[in-house]
């Protein structure tokens, strides 16, 4: 790549994404695997969304949030994987500076909404199990829409702040990113200017975007666990824990990979580990979500069967 030269410095106008593998012989294998993963993820999440739309039993707040989560999962994988697949096909690893920042913005926008939606789902379980008498008024359709709208606004503010902050950095030297998509830690490593403010922003906004929701989720589930343990019926306890178990599994994968990825700044040697965490975050997690939510849920399974066979729900 030929960098542009200003009066006194070299300005990077594009980055080179090394991708997942540097061995040419392995690229067709990676392409097929990730194309299949993409198709399975999009198909699985759209099937869940269709099941929620066609099944009257699933017209509840929990499944309203799950439907939104399915749309986000399709968005998250679509921000990273198709561009990686096109680079594997074209054998071109170059990504323009603007395209890199655009990808970063949309990735953080969608991941941010994910954080808040998972929190809204925990709050929904808390109200359903601990405050059943006021549940319908506290989790009305208006409240559901407000929670989703606020999630999008907060995530937009976070993503825009990071994108604007990184656009103020100078990139004048190396332009090789050892990853398959553009993200903050990798761009920080390439900056010629001080990243102290950017790291501070990542830490501060990280506490607001991930720390606060995590505290709310844990608090909600402590109350839920206490309430469930007071249920005398074994069947009632099992049903309550099954819906909560699916959600907690998704929360664990999402937050576990996120914390590992962003709270380990400054580690240049960890690039190959970053790729593994990136795959978990952007591919495996969205692909597993439909499976996790439908595996132990007979209502979702029944609705999926009707969607796939074209049969309508009775009554």
Automatic annotation (TrEMBL):
SUPFAM superfamilies: Family A G protein-coupled receptor-like (SSF81321). GO terms for cellular component: plasma membrane. The keyword Glycoprotein applies. InterPro entries: GPCR_Rhodpsn, GPCR_Rhodpsn_7TM, Olfact_rcpt. GO terms for molecular function: G protein-coupled receptor activity; olfactory receptor activity. It is found in: Cell membrane. Keywords: Cell membrane, G-protein coupled receptor, Glycoprotein, Membrane, Olfaction, Receptor, Sensory transduction, Transducer, Transmembrane, Transmembrane helix. The chain crosses the membrane at residues 29-54, 63-85, 105-126, 146-166, 200-229. It is a multi-pass membrane protein. CDD domains: 7tmA_OR3A-like. The keyword Signal does not apply. Belongs to the G-protein coupled receptor 1 family. This is Olfactory receptor.
